[in-house]
Structures are given as C-alpha cells and as structure tokens.
C-alpha cells in the first residue's frame, strides 16, 4: 500500500480524491489527497492490532484470525488501488 501511495501520489493532479461513487457513477464524497492516500495505513494497523488483542485476550472466541487478516488486507488493498487508479485517470 505504501508503494501504491508513492507511485500514484505524484501522478494524481487534483487536491481531492473521490472516495465513493453512487449508482449513477458520480462521486458521492471526496477526501483530501493526503487523507485518501495515507489513511488506509493506520486503519489497517488498527484492525490488525484489534485482531491480535482479541486473539491474545479472548482466544476461545477468535477463530481463523490469519484468514481474516489476509482477507481484510486483500480487500482494503484492492479497494485502495481501485480508488487511486480512478483518481489518476480523472486528473
């Protein structure tokens, strides 16, 4: 994700990036370029920390944590890449 941010950051010319699109294909809301690029890193770290804490302190109710972490990482990374590619082509 950091590599995507470093690659796409200079290629995105606008100061704001569309973060969600409606059914009509138009953006519903925008975030600042800095927030859109870098907010996903702390989000992913926070979720990973939460899953780790849950698996350490309540291991009897946490099942498949590794699979959950991998799935979450793939979904977030794919979504982030999609947003960055759309922002690059929009500029």
Describe the structure.
α3 packs antiparallel against α4. Helix content is 63%, strand content 13%. The chain is of the alpha+beta class.
Descriptive labels:
single chain, 91 residues, alpha+beta, two-stranded antiparallel sheet, 4 helices, 2 strands, elongated
Describe the protein's topology:
Blueprint: H1 2-8, E1 16-21, E2 27-32, H2 33-38, H3 40-57, H4 65-90
Antiparallel strand pairs: 1-2
Helix pairs in contact: 3-4
Summarize, please.
The protein is α+β, with helices and mostly antiparallel strands and 91 residues long. Helices cover 63% and strands 13% of the residues. α3 runs antiparallel to α4 (65-90).
What's the total number of strands? 2
Helix content: 55-70%
Ends: how far apart? 21 Å
* Main sheet: strand order: 1-2
Mean pLDDT over the full residue set: 91
Overall body shape: elongated
Tell me the β content: 5-15%
Structural class: alpha+beta
Number of domains: 1
Number of helices: 4
